[in-house]
Amino acid sequence: MSIHCRTSGLLVCLILSLIVSPASAQSPVNKDVLVYGGTAAGVMSAYSAARRGSHVVLLEPGHHLGGMVTGGLSATDLGNPQVIGGYAKLFYRRVAEHYGRSRLDRITDWLSEPHVSEDTFGAMLGEAGVEVVFGARLRERHGVTIENRRIVSVTSEDGREWRAEVFVDCSYEGDLLAQSGATYTWGRESAQTYGETLAGVRTITPQHQFGWPMLAYRDDHRLYPEISPGPLPTAGSGDKNVQAYNYRLVLTDDPANRLPFPKPDGYDPAQFALLARYLQEFQSHMGRDPSLRDFLYPVRLPNHKADFNNNGPFSSDYIGHSAAYPDASYQDKLRIRTEHLRYTQGLLYFLSHDPVVPAPLKSQLNVWGLPKDEFSDSDHWPRELYIREGRRMVGAYVVTQADLQTNRAKPDAIGMGSYNSDSHNVQRVVMPDGTVRNEGDMQVPVQPYQIPYRVMTPRKDELQNLLVPVCLSASHVAYSSLRMEPQYMILGQAAGVAGSLAAESGVPVQDIPIARLQRELLKAGAVLDLPENSFFGP
């Protein structure tokens, strides 16, 4: 076991080091609630259960807390900030206090540097007395023991066995879910599966699309790299594709803190031949030189940093290379993560060095670089691959498009969502006319909607002591809105309280008293309704 400490977070790490189980312990560890995955949802699950007095252990496969919130995604996808309450809002208020702006009345108040967010998560767990164990990845095979529709224990790769009354899978991968025997899926349902107009293959999507007909073939009649030969299936048909993953980049324009983009091992500019062609045609079609924002979307963070996200038709999303990830082996997942990182490194090196890139665009990008004071144990590249969507449980209730648009009230509400139905492209294909098209983008506004408790519970006849706040029970369309980190934290808090209630009463997670769960969430500041919605009546 190892704990990575920053100078600014030394006290937090000292606190955590006192409550982390020794790696040499081999006897089974018995707890009320076991949380798997130190994501933001995992932190909130562990924190909320411990605050109720439950004995909690948090197993994190890696060596850092916070998942994407501390691993590159610093520009929080808020939607309507009014729906964010409870411990999620407490977290954002605390990071804002670090910068002397705790009111959260501006969007910029919700943004922070990765190391500040990680220190804040660590402090919260230390205050609650949560036992945190790093380097505790679930054994890939036979890692979950089940008796009578209940998980008895999980075993980490080093052979340690962990027992608990209730288990909460807060990982992005859903590996505990997958080994538990509960039903899960991944990919896109067809439009017919749940009667969703936004489901399946999407043929007309103007966003993040090539703005003019771009030929998919080179002069030698071969496809450019990064294009699938197709054909594009019928609109609305389902498949096993997932929206593209990427690395959310945290870069700095402070010369004293800036490192240049290195040339990655195995770099081949030919991988970006389609991008080169796009750059060469840009001025004639757009009437101006390309700019940085045509390819990356920066959002300013404190201390001369910014979060850079995908933008445009060819950007940091590694389109067409994520579909194998959700149900892959550990080894294949590592390979896919490595390939995504190399693509990202190659893209930045190409845009900042290649002769085909217009000088103004190069100059705009080369103002930025890797921050010396972030991600010191990963060569200053973000640690987390942005798994926008992986496995999804098929549980007691499947949230679908209707639950976001027309059936927005829920009797067992545990929080609210408000972000757009937002899916990134899933593939880049050649069309019958020889042009290239990105497919899969979805950007459809929603009104604030209630999230039901049942979204986290498996079917009772399958499993009775597992909660799943991240790889939750939703269609691809609904998940594209629910997948935002504030909602993960909201769900994580509810899972922690629910898990604690189930552990102390000895009932299945499906049978806990919903009214009591809601009362405890409201007492902790959770938002289950908005005045203009009046879902709960006057």
Automatic annotation (TrEMBL):
GO molecular function, one term: oxidoreductase activity
InterPro entries, per database record: FAD/NAD-bd_sf, HdrA-like
Alphabetically ordered keywords of this record: 4Fe-4S, Iron, Iron-sulfur, Metal-binding, Oxidoreductase, Signal
SUPFAM superfamilies in alphabetical order: FAD/NAD(P)-binding domain
Annotated Pfam families: FAD_oxidored
Domain of life: Bacteria
Protein name per the record: FAD-dependent oxidoreductase
